[in-house]
Amino acid sequence: MQYKKTFAMVIFLIHIVFFLSFLFLIPFKLNIFFSFEIAFFSIVLVIMTSYLSYKKMIYSQAKKYQINQNLFLFSLKKIKNLPKNIKFTISKDDLEFSTKNKIYFFATFFNLLKIFAYVILVAGFLFLNRQGMLHIISYLCGISSLLICVFIFMIYIRYESKKNY
User: Using CA atoms, how far apart are residues 51 and 117, in angstroms rounded to an integer?
Assistant: First the structure.
């Protein structure tokens, strides 16, 4: 990821904008602050652990493949004439995963670090609820502010990729 500083800046700016705009609507209370911050940082942990697990999976998959580069830019092939009668058969081989692939994808998606991040998200919610400090609107704003950061960053990346090419 070559835009780490940009992503951190987007997170910081959107976090501040969301929190300040939320404070203009509702006066400052400690339970609003705690609900917003716990939700925001627990969802940051979920996003970062997801990023790290997918990065690890991609690197492990990339080691399996070797890239063979041809020296020629163009290759010429003789085109064979196709027979006039063609019979099509339905093949479902690519739609069915083996049990080994299902277990691998399940283990990749639910690794221990991600489960720990989700446990922190739920534990923060339950802690705030048991202490009587849970403010649902600010908790949802804390979660949605990071999701908006991710969408803004995706738009930025798309804009930068079109600008460079």
Answer: 12
Which whole number is the average pLDDT over 83-98? 64
DSSP 8-state secondary structure symbol assigned to residue 94: G
Of 139, 157, 146, 116, nearest to 3 (Cα)? Answer: 157
What value does the mean pLDDT take over residues 83-90? 65
Q: Residue 108 and residue 117: Cα distance in Å, rounded?
A: 15
What's the CA gap between 143 and 159, in Å, rounded? 25
Q: What is the CB neighbour count within 10 angstroms for residue 61?
A: 10
Three-state secondary structure call for residue 24: helix
- pLDDT per position as a tens digit, 48-85: 888 888 888 788 777 776 665 555 555 555 556 666 66
